Amino acid sequence: MKIIDGKALAAKLQEELRVRVEGMAVKPALMVILVGDNSASQVYVRNKARAAERIGIKSETLFLPESTSEAELLNLIDKYNADEQWHGILVQLPLPAQIDEDKVLLAIDPNKDVDGFHPMNMGRLWTGQPVMVPSTPAGVMEMFKAYDISLEGKQAVVLGRSNIVGKPMAQLMMDQNATVTLCHSRTQGLKAICQKADIIVSAIGQAEFVKADFVKEGAVVIDVGMNRNAEGKLCGDVAFDEVAEKASLITPVPGGVGPMTITMLMKQTVTACERLTAGFDNERVDK
Ligand SMILES: Nc1nc2c(c(=O)[nH]1)N[C@@H](CN(C=O)c1ccc(C(=O)N[C@@H](CCC(=O)O)C(=O)O)cc1)CN2
Fold first, then answer.
1. How many domains does the chain have?
2. pTM for the complete prediction?
3. Atom 33, ligand 1: which residue's CA is nearest?
């Protein structure tokens, strides 16, 4: 078994981005909006700001109170959509209950939607014209590339059907000619489906859900989960120690997919800047 080192790969890709940004006449700029006081989200936005700084991306984080109304947030998004100094706008999820997440994601200019969550960017991904791709699945694809994991003709299982991970993950793997089974909480015979998989990507959000008896000998196991176990320790969806004995390649948590998520967000911010400064417009299908 070999461990896929997301932290090392992220550092390498961030250094490549730093060099790319050094050569850009207009420096990319990212606006991050955090509503409320979710402690995990605070860690993530801080890590995004640090990564941006390392790469040479200008970034600002707007900390809004938990009581922020939907209208207030939508007004701010309109303001940053119109402000040419910002190439990327990101609203950290989850949002407080009074704010409709779908409305917020729809309000972000698709050209500045560095998270790739706008329905237009989702639709473009689904129809084979990706522009902005959700960072977590994009990060997993970079891991496949870096570790020479071919998806061609492989049986892949994705656990979890969220818009930000499961669905785009399945699409990206299909684009590389994998046969993908997208499983979820109502899937019957889930273990048997997993046992046939060459590649398992788990984003189900349950600590140690994927056990050794789910996994075929030699399978590749990617853990997107970010959970706390009974002792309050950060862990993924995969029972790492026992699954590692059967897998050919496996990602740890922490230090696996997480750092890649932030790196891919930075990459998309650089791309958004390049596209916007070159006058590309996502809403035109010919671009
Ligand atoms: N607007 C967005 N919101 C959320 C996204 C997203 O892509 N865009 N994804 C997640 C949170 N997330 C990024 O925002 C994220 C989660 C985890 C990590 C990470 O590096 N995890 C570390 C461990 C960190 C820790 O110690 O707690 C790791 O796995 O090594 C980065 C980004 C939901 N919201």
1. 2
2. 0.96
3. 93
